[in-house]
């Protein structure tokens, strides 16, 4: 069971709490987790990744084990602690401006 923490605006849109749990078949990658998230919460399609390119939206960041994975390949396997649900995958809304 994968745990995903969502920023306020996405949890409001999906009508969920701050954390959701997802069943993801191996291999557990950022792509497979986001695919499962969008399949379970279709209202999130296009809010995290672009509809066509599937690239991360500019003002969202992904954190894995307290490290920024926003620029990692979507097909890089996530660490075992994420795959087992011991640690959550964080989707964080970035702040722009000065």
How does this structure look, described?
The protein has helices spanning 8-14, 30-40, 80-83; strands spanning 2-5, 19-22, 60-64, 67-68, 89-93. With 98 residues, it is of the alpha+beta class. The protein has one domain (2-93): Ubiquitin-like (UB roll) (Roll), CATH 3.10.20. The protein has a five-stranded mixed beta sheet with strand order 2-1-5-3-4. Strand 3 and strand 4 form a beta hairpin. The protein starts with a strand and ends in a 5-residue tail after the last strand. The model has no long low-confidence stretch (mean pLDDT 94).
In short, what is this structure?
By secondary structure, this protein is of the alpha+beta class. Helices cover 22% and strands 20% of the residues. Strands 2-1-5-3-4 form a 5-stranded mixed β-sheet.
Q: What CATH architecture label applies?
A: Roll
Helix proportion: 10-25%
Termini Cα gap = 38 Å
CATH class: Alpha Beta
Cα radius of gyration in angstroms: 12 Å
> What is the SS-derived class?
alpha+beta
- Domains counted in the coordinates: how many? 1
Number of helices: 3
Task: Choose one word for the global shape.
Answer: globular
**SSE pattern:** EHEHEEHE
What would the average pLDDT be, to the nearest integer?
Answer: 94
| CATH fold annotation | Ubiquitin-like (UB roll)
Beta-strand portion reads 15-25%
Q: Uncertain spans, ≥5 residues at pLDDT below 50?
A: none
Question: What's the count of strands?
Answer: 5
What's the CATH superfamily, by name?
A: Beta-grasp domain
Sheet with the most strands?
5 strands, mixed
Identify the strand order in the major beta sheet: 2-1-5-3-4
